From TrEMBL:
Protein name per UniProt: Phosphodiesterase
SUPFAM superfamilies given in the database record: GAF domain-like, HD-domain/PDEase-like
Biased composition, class Low complexity, residue ranges: 838-849
Keywords noted in UniProt: Hydrolase, Metal-binding
Keyword Hydrolase attached: yes
EC number of this enzyme: 3.1.4.-
Binding site for Zn(2+) 1: H603, D604, D722
Cofactor: a divalent metal cation
Stretch list, region Disordered: 828-855
GO BP annotations listed: signal transduction
Similarity comment text for this entry: Belongs to the cyclic nucleotide phosphodiesterase family.
Domain PDEase: start-end pairs: 482-818
Organism: Scophthalmus maximus
Length: 855
């Protein structure tokens, strides 16, 4: 009784002195109470078994429960789930859900993060895994409307609710209350409560309650969003920083540049795996690659193309594996059925230049990704982000594809931004390698042209007087004379050789019996025989210097190199006219004939006396400038350089179409002298010959061939001319073979002394006696096919085949003589060895008998 009286008296005192009571409580009790309320181990003292209105104390418990979630290691899903669980109780809502706002492929959408949260729910049951998300576009349903308008919506009846979710979950939505969660002016998420349990719909009081507690959701999601943005920007900065450091370490090669950068930043890309497909940058095919297509041997490419018109061909694929044990796989020339390409996504990105973000690869209807595990680890493709790598010229140089975000969620807008920054940087960095490559080519061109200046000069005015003696005749230079005056010197004064006497129309023509000046005159005569000088208005003061320069450049090179191979090559060049003797001119226009004869003059200009392989082995600038057919492309460049000179340009009066045609034919004719291309095109030529036999009327076949440009280009005309010395009479051919062998042996000497390598037998001077055997092999494996097929194609060529076969017999006879001598030498050597061995045995036996005497 006394205690009760004391308590009553204390209460009366505190009621009478509220200021003192507050001060006393703040000093003695408040710190402990607040500490207990904020203790993370404390459980909420709130009975949620039955719905009821919250008392002030219970509401305080809810508030402190929410604060406890925020104060220590904020976990967005857990904190928002706790809030929604309390709101479900306070709103009497059957369920609540959270939809996160995001953008993929530039399109905004809402995806379920927490679904079917009730007052008694558990977090694990409500947290939606990435592969089970329900995604709403912003133009669908209540949540889409809320995200678009950024306003709360209270729907008494769900007349415009999207029913597909109800059908999916077998649930009936009757009413709903939804509110946007904002970060400034940007929507972060939408929270929605459905089905009021103690009434027909949510009330204004429910809206007030939701708004009151929405501040917690705003705070939680804002902190989460800012933290995520900070993390993304940090990763983006690291990606650009590290990739920049590696990009500028490697300037020589785009593949190594990309590889170094992408491997260095792998830790910041937040994915399990990524691959980079590098695209072929070739815009125009080589003519020899077009031939099979134009002739119908290979179907034309009908696949996708890049925006700038290139065929989509991935020449290399680099696969970076980050899950499990890290690994890198480099796949050169990947096949279309490779797992990274078979879906068609990289080709689609290369074709459209679009960024593609696919959240559920297994269920995607447009791209067919491999659904089975890719390796023994069981790793499968879940979500994919693919984007183009674009250079400064806005050309797509590759496609980067990222697989499976590490946290299992789909790639979002921030991932797109980060990856796009990386690919843009890599694309722009291609400028470094392009610039480096251009500088290298310019440097190589400079070296080549400096080399040319040392070797060659354009023919001097006094040299041309040996052909056009205008000073003696007219007292002026050729460029000062009228065409009639020059014509009179060339034709009427018989400066040019007589066709029959010089035999330039005969198969057996050979330049061994002609001086260099005579060869120049023969070359000029060929243009007159073709009747192209007047038809295409070749200025006489230009035509003569062009032929003189072309011939003299070649002679100058050979003279300085102390080689005799020029005569062989020249024989091949002048043999161009022999083809017309064979009546093959019937298939060609006069313009085409002029182009091919000019190509014959130019096809060995500045020949170095060594082959293409030597250029590569010795690191010659030519090999660095031209990737294939090295010397042939060099001869072509020199020829074009001469033709660009106004005083040597025999094409100067052609129109644009004619000029383009002759340059095109020169390209083909000169590059075709590379025997490496001969082996590629011989089957096509054989089919042309077979086709010719299907025509009964020869004139019909001639008309057909005249119109078939591609077939004429593949007809091996230049190859037959370049090899024509093998079909000369034996007395000429044998001399030519020795000349060529001398050239080869000099290259062999260079390989042995300069490159410190042993030459192949054909180049080895020490094996000169094997020349007949080598010639037989050359005829059998290279030359015989050309002239056999040409003889089938055109019987007038048969004399060349007959001489070829005769020369084969002559070489074979020499080979047999050599082999017989070698056999005799070997037999004598063996006999001598046996004699020596017998003498040794006899000596040993005699020595043994002397030591075994009887006493």
């Amino acid at each position: 009784k006394m205690v009760k009286n004391v308590d009553s008296a204390a209460e009366q005192f505190l009621d009478a002195n509220p200021q003192f009571a507050k001060q006393y409580y703040d000093v003695n009790f408040r710190p402990k109470v607040i500490s207990d309320l904020l203790d993370n181990s404390r459980k909420t003292a709130l009975d949620v078994s039955k719905f009821h209105d919250l008392t002030t104390v219970e509401e305080s418990e809810v508030l402190f429960d929410l604060v406890r979630d925020i104060q220590d290691n904020l976990q967005m899903e857990k904190s928002v789930f706790n809030l929604m669980r309390h709101l479900s109780f306070m709103l009497r809502a059957d369920r609540m859900s959270l939809f996160m706002y995001r953008q993929r492929n530039g399109v905004a959408e809402l995806a379920t993060r927490l679904f079917n949260v009730s007052k008694d729910a558990a977090l694990d049951d409500c947290l939606v895994p990435p592969d089970s998300e329900i995604v709403y576009p912003l133009d669908m349903g209540i949540v889409g409307h809320v995200a678009s308008t950024k306003k709360m919506v209270n729907v008494p009846v769900t007349s415009f609710y999207s029913e597909f979710v109800d059908e999916l979950t077998e649930y009936k939505t009757k009413n709903a209350l939804a509110v946007p969660i904002m970060n400034g002016k940007d929507v972060v998420a939408v929270m929605m409560a459905v089905n009021k349990l103690d009434g027909p719909h949510f009330t204004a009081k429910d809206e007030e309650t939701l708004n009151k507690y929405l501040n917690f959701a705003n705070l939680i999601l804002r902190v989460f969003h800012l933290s995520y943005l900070h993390n993304c920007e940090t990763r983006r900065g690291q990606v650009l920083l590290w990739s920049a450091s590696k990009v500028f370490e490697e300037l020589t090669d785009i593949e190594r540049q990309f590889h170094k950068a992408l491997y260095t930043v792998r830790a910041f890309l937040n994915c399990d795996r990524y691959s980079v497909g590098l695209l072929d940058m070739t815009k125009t095919k080589e003519f020899f690659d077009l031939w099979p297509i134009l002739m119908g041997e290979v179907p034309p490419y009908d696949g996708p193309k890049t925006p700038d018109g290139r065929e989509i061909i991935f020449y290399k694929l680099i696969d970076y594996i980050l899950h499990g044990k890290e690994d890198i796989k480099v796949i050169p020339t990947p096949t279309p059925d490779h797992w990274a390409l078979i879906s068609g996504l990289p080709s689609y990105v290369a074709e459209t230049g679009l960024i593609c973000n696919i959240m559920n690869a297994a269920e995607d209807e447009f791209f067919q990704f491999q659904k089975e595990p890719l390796d023994d680890s069981g790793w499968t493709i879940k979500n994919v982000l693919s984007m183009p790598i674009v250079n400064k010229k806005e050309e797509i140089v590759g496609v980067a594809t990222f697989y499976n975000r590490k946290d299992g969620k789909p790639f979002d807008e921030m991932d797109e931004t980060l990856m796009e920054s990386l690919t843009q940087f890599l694309g722009w960095s291609v400028l470094n390698t392009d610039t480096y490559d251009r500088m290298n080519k310019l440097e190589n061109r400079k070296d080549i042209f400096q080399d040319m200046v040392m070797y060659h000069i354009k023919c001097r005015k006094d040299e041309i007087q040996n052909v056009l003696n205008t000073r003696e005749r007219w007292g002026k230079e050729p460029d000062e004379c009228e065409e009639e005056e020059l014509q009179e010197i060339l034709v009427k004064s018989e400066v040019l050789p007589n066709t029959k006497k010089s035999e330039i129309l005969e198969f057996h023509f050979c330049d061994f019996d002609h001086s260099e000046l005579d060869l120049v005159k023969c070359g000029i005569k060929m243009y007159y025989e073709l009747k192209v000088v007047d038809k295409f208005h070749i200025p006489r003061e230009v035509g003569a210097p062009f032929v003189f320069t072309a011939v003299c450049l070649s002679v100058s090179t050979i003279a300085q190199k102390r080689l005799t191979g020029f005569r062989t090559k020249r024989c091949g060049d002048v043999e161009k006219k022999d083809e017309y003797t064979g009546d093959l001119k019937r298939y060609y226009t006069d313009l085409e004939c002029m182009a091919m004869v000019t190509a014959g003059f130019c096809h060995d200009i500045d020949h170095r006396g060594t082959n293409n392989l030597y250029q590569m082995k010795s690191g010659n600038p030519l090999a660095k400038l031209h990737g294939s057919s090295i010397l042939e492309r060099h001869h072509l460049d020199i020829g074009k350089t001469l033709l660009r000179d106004e005083s040597l340009n025999i094409y100067q009066n052609l129109n644009r179409r004619q000029h383009d045609l002759v340059i095109h034919l020169m390209d083909i004719a000169i590059i075709a002298t590379d025997l490496a291309l001969y082996f590629k095109s011989r089957t096509m030529f054989q089919k042309i010959v077979d086709q010719s036999k299907t025509y009964e009327n020869w004139n019909d076949w001639t008309k057909y061939m005249m119109l078939e440009t591609t077939r004429k280009e593949t007809a091996m005309m230049m190859t037959a001319c370049d090899l024509s010395a093998i079909a000369k009479p034996w007395e000429i051919q044998s001399k030519v073979a020795l000349s060529v062998a001398a050239e080869f042996w000099e290259q062999g000497d260079l390989e042995r002394t300069v490159l410190e390598q042993n030459p192949i037998p054909m180049m080895d001077r020490n094996k000169a006696a094997d020349l007949p055997k080598l010639q037989c092999g050359f005829i059998d494996f290279v030359c015989a096919f050309v002239y056999k097929e040409f003889s089938r194609f055109h019987v007038e060529i048969t004399p060349m085949l007959d001489r070829l076969l005769n020369n084969r017999k002559e070489w074979n006879a020499l080979k047999e003589v050599h082999e017989a001598k070698m056999a005799e030498i070997e037999a004598a050597k063996k006999a001598k060895e046996e004699e020596t061995a017998g003498a040794k045995q006899a000596s040993a036996a005699q020595s043994q008998s002397k030591t075994c005497t009887l006493s």
